[in-house]
Amino acid sequence: MSEQLADLRRRMAEISDLGSLGALLFWDQQTMMPPGGAPARAEAAATLARVFHARETSPDLGALLDALEPWAAEQDPDSDDARLVWWARRDYEKAVRVPEDLAAELTRAKALGQQAWIEARAAADFSLFRDALARQVDLRHRYIACFDGFEHPYDALLDDFEPGLTTAELRPLFAELRDALVPLVSAAGDVEQERNAGAFKGEFDVVTQKLAVLDVLGALGYDPDRWRLDPTLHPFASGIAPDDVRLTTRYDEHDFAVALYSALHEFGHGLYEAGSDRALWRTTLDDPVSLGVHESQSRLWENMVGRSRAFCAWLLPRLNATVPGAVAGLDTAGLYHAVNTVQPSLVRTEADETTYNLHIILRFELELALMDGSLGVDDLPAAWDEGMDRLLGVQVPGPVEGVLQDVHWSAGLMGYFPTYTLGNLIGAQLWDRLRDDLADVDAQIERGEFAPLREWLREHVHRHGRKFPPRELLRRITGEELRVDPFLRYLREKLADAGVLATAT
Amino acid sequence: MSEQLADLRRRMAEISDLGSLGALLFWDQQTMMPPGGAPARAEAAATLARVFHARETSPDLGALLDALEPWAAEQDPDSDDARLVWWARRDYEKAVRVPEDLAAELTRAKALGQQAWIEARAAADFSLFRDALARQVDLRHRYIACFDGFEHPYDALLDDFEPGLTTAELRPLFAELRDALVPLVSAAGDVEQERNAGAFKGEFDVVTQKLAVLDVLGALGYDPDRWRLDPTLHPFASGIAPDDVRLTTRYDEHDFAVALYSALHEFGHGLYEAGSDRALWRTTLDDPVSLGVHESQSRLWENMVGRSRAFCAWLLPRLNATVPGAVAGLDTAGLYHAVNTVQPSLVRTEADETTYNLHIILRFELELALMDGSLGVDDLPAAWDEGMDRLLGVQVPGPVEGVLQDVHWSAGLMGYFPTYTLGNLIGAQLWDRLRDDLADVDAQIERGEFAPLREWLREHVHRHGRKFPPRELLRRITGEELRVDPFLRYLREKLADAGVLATAT
Prior knowledge:
Shape of chain A: globular
Oligomer: homodimer
Number of strands of chain A: 3
Number of helices of chain A: 20
Largest sheet of chain A: 3 strands, mixed
Largest interface: A-B, 39 and 39 residues
Strand content of chain A: under 5%
């Protein structure tokens, strides 16, 4: 069996390498590529995708898995090898079920959909996007039809981003969250207030901002020998390899909070990408296990750490030295209050921590309705506007700040949005457990000692890579299933502690 | 036949895409990758190389070429399709002749050789590099043995970099050049003089230098929508795609000439990469045809344009505005004289235009002797030092400035060095022809009108990509075979005109 196992490991190593090439192509396109390179890049990426797909769906791989599975069944189920075989089978089965012509159509529709979306936004006219969206909905149905064994059609979409997550599980969780957040936002929110209560506003040149961000990230654990930080339009983090982590951020010359908090967010993603066990490197287990768990890491650093009282206390003198004027006149309590203020607003990417999940819940409700046919594409803009009023109490002035604000649907990404909120829920569950283990964590953060926190995350989350499916990982760490109340408790306590809510409700 | 031709074009498009990915990997590694990424990058590059090799050597491709060749023989021999079939056959035959285990050993020896070279340089001890070099010589012999039909073993090496070039052709050319240059350097050279007679020396920050370089390149034809310029240790240009050209340069904070002339050099390479006919894009004809022709383009911009009297006249006021102090106190004649001074020196990459080819001729002589067995690896350092004295009249103080100065041999690159000098020879032959066609070129350059020059090069050289083999391309443009005297005449006239030689000798 050792020869077949070596063959599988070799194949998975090559698939891992090809994935790394794909990540580099994306990173380069978003940060470095001159605009003229786009058409050739699309072709090169398509060729790489074909090579990747051919390796993933090779009949030899299927036969190899047939031969290895009886052996794997007798191994320690927690061993790397047993898990490698399990994930290889799962990836293989998902890949072979999608016919090549449908895969090609999905790729084409992505490019066309994004183009239509850009044009519709430029014209502030949903009707220009309508057909492309209808096509995406139709293609999702064709994609779903490739699979059986899913209870709800939407489960097939969720499973691509959050393996094993079901609509049946998600619906009551999101309903519970919605029913708690709507009154919380009503109580704590002030639609007139500026984001972060106007802290971080001023005129800050990009070089100053970048040095200040690197100063903060360096203290957190950013290693310049293994990491980069570059500007981009829509920030992301990319693990080209565990020792080659690329963060990106965006600099707003009038608001330092944009770069600071997006860098904290991407740092959380990057740390996950960097932290897998060396034994998993160059295997297909060497990846974050799901978008939800990935987002739990970014949200944990952005919000649970980054908007805590302890972090504000540590951050304040640092920023006064590196970005004079950004938080001038504030004390720790003032900064802590400012970064936790709540203001219902129109655009998801600009939402505060409290209102953010209501933006996601709206998208989840609309996606489900689009997919089960209870909502037609033509009725989507009205449903969007109605939902924003119902959930956040805001009136949408037009499609650019409304139904056309996100790129995701244009690219066929449905079932993806829920993982943003899952990240908040999982993050809070992990945060509870972490605080049980690290009783001193607030004092450590206030002293700028981030190693224990980083190590806890590495030990419990990062090092496993993709070895354990997300629900199993959560159970192993917390003993729990997905829950809403840890997040709500965390949020209410913080809003009360920061003086944003009069009392903890 | 149209179906088979479409199949060939599809295969060549994918090979072209994979080549583009390889170029991006290299560019990224040299400019962007954090150092920690190196081991994973080596694996990813090796996987890509295997994918590339598998496509190149696919038996289906061989069968397809068998089927297409009778058809191609009846097409216009100058048609793209006929040439595509011809080059595909050539590439295929070269690729399939190297057994996979030898190819793997060549790759491994490259990494090991470079490591040994780095250590030997750090210790200034050739003996630490000796075994790795002997291994490279041995592997070259095994590589050569894969091929028949070459008159001289060294021809097999040359052919990889300059298709069709033979040792029999090169030897008398280089002998003629050597016999002319040695006395010319004696007459014009001054070993005590600084490079560029000390012009460009001072203290110049990198930002100022970069803006000044971009100002010059912008006037020459650098298009920021299709090009980039980044710093690196050893400058190079990479055509990721014709509309995605990446130049690199190096900034010496004490000598602006380093960045300026390396940028002019790489601009010449970049223009070639950017200039192929659109009909050739995403084919295997969409590449510069040889390293020699490639170098003719870089040398033409760096030296024939960049060190001309007309260019100096155009450049001087520009630099006085963008890099105050760099050429302070010089008039056009002074700058023209300074950038054409001759000083025999130890290190190839720092050599002036006149002495440069003697560095190459030494390497050519030594490579031939290593390959035909008349020189043993142990005797190489002494032979190097003797050659430097004989050709340039300089005494080598130690191996770092001597036999260990270049990375090429450590990576197994033998037969590569001659293309640097070929570039100078071809450049001069093209320059003669270009000046016949563009009688007004000096005045145009002095006015900063570079479009006619750029267009001539595109029309006669760049647009053909790899369509015509290098000798054929040269004949088509100039009606000539490779010659030495155009270069010597150009050089002597310039040295006399610039006052570096008392009279044109």
